[in-house]
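Action item from last week, closing it out:
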Amino acid sequence: FTAATSSQKVIRILREYYDAVGAAATECGGTIKDQAGDGVLTLVGAPIPYPDHAQRALKLARRIREAGMEITARWSDQDLTLGVGVGVASGFVTVGVIGAASRLEYTAVGPAVNLASRLCSEAAHGEILIDGRTLELLGEEAQQRHRLVAGEALTLKGFQQPVQSYTLAAA
């Protein structure tokens, strides 16, 4: 898309997308950690812990999908089609400031961060993929209420065993 589109147009699209994700993150108690290209890493439960972080993350994923679908529909055309996919993973991560004397950055490190990124990369347009740990944390009632469907076990870079994925059905 970026190769066939003016940089000014790409920046306008990204600004709109980042604004929408930022508003959704604020609403759900998320902290935006990174924005890189069309990817946004949002932490839910760090640095502010929430006992219901899995529910908040699912709500955030839905909001991002809703806003992303609207934005991609508006900016896509016959020649170039944009898409939005979301990945959600839960687990312990280490958060804090890391870097060198010349540059410090707040970061999150751990398998859950990598897994969320990999699930996002695997998600099709309009799809939300979540991991098994998030599913467990949601509980059985929430699983049924949100219509979570078992998907494929995915072979993902950096993970020795296939990872069972679950798809959050469209509303």
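Closing note: The chain has a mean pLDDT of 92.
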